[in-house]
């Protein structure tokens, strides 16, 4: 990993542990174990640092999306039942203890930097639409929007207020009902 990538990774750690208020160049320098001023040399402003984090979040989300849905879904090999299982598993992974801090950062940045996140959301909806269409789901564009809202709402609830862990079978049933 290069210096820029190290700093973005450190910024993700700072955000996941302390939220947006704790995201400073100095905090990222400390998290990356680099001399003071290192972050400012690459990311002149806090906004440029936040944009780099947002870009990394989208890359990670796409990687997760492709890992779970893969070529089978895009080529139409997965049916609706299989897709509900795959999507339920993806949600479980995003809420897992290893991925939850990154998911929290994504949800926080989505609320605070909605304009910057909008392009990635549009790309996600487009990809989901294609996958749902290949699986034979009726009204795939509408269902893609509903599915994205379901995923974000489920993750927000699971990572903030719910004392109960997510259940894969319940998620799959809800996704199945949503996809009709």
Task: Please tell me about this protein's structure.
With 180 residues, this protein is mostly helical. The protein folds into 2 domains: 1-44, Orthogonal Bundle (Arc Repressor Mutant, subunit A); 55-179, Tetracycline Repressor, domain 2 (Orthogonal Bundle), CATH 1.10.357. 77% of the residues lie in helices and 0% in strands. It has 9 helices and no strands. It has helices at residues 3-18, 25-31, 38-42, 46-74, 80-94, 100-112, 114-134, 140-160, 168-179. The longest helix has 29 residues, at 46-74. The radius of gyration is 18 Å and the shape is elongated.
Would you summarize the structure shown here?
By secondary structure, the chain is an all-alpha fold.
What attributes characterize this protein structure?
180 residues; Arc Repressor Mutant, subunit A; Tetracycline Repressor, domain 2; 2 domains; 0% strand
Query: Structural class of the helix and strand makeup?
Result: mainly alpha
Count of discrete structural domains: 2
User: By CATH's scheme, which homologous superfamily of the largest domain applies?
Assistant: Tetracycline Repressor, domain 2
Helix content, binned percent: over 70%
Count every beta strand, where a strand is a DSSP E run of 2 or more residues: 0
Overall geometry comes to elongated
């Amino acid at each position: 990993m290069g210096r820029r990538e190290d700093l973005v990774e450190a910024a993700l750690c700072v955000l996941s542990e302390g939220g947006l208020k704790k995201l400073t160049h100095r905090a990222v320098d400390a998290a990356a174990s680099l001399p003071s001023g290192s972050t400012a040399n690459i990311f002149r402003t806090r906004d440029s640092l936040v944009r780099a984090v947002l870009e990394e979040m989208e890359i990670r989300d796409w990687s997760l999306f492709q890992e779970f849905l893969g070529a089978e879904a895009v080529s139409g090999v997965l049916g609706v039942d299989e897709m509900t299982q795959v999507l339920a598993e993806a949600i479980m992974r995003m809420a897992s203890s290893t991925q939850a801090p990154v998911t929290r950062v994504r949800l926080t940045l989505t609320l605070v930097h909605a304009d910057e996140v909008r392009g990635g959301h549009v790309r996600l909806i487009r990809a989901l639409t294609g996958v749902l269409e290949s699986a034979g789901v009726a009204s795939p564009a509408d269902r893609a929007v509903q599915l994205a809202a379901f995923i974000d709402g489920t993750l927000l609830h699971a990572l903030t207020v719910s004392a109960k862990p997510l259940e894969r079978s319940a998620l799959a049933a809800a996704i199945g009902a949503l996809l009709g």
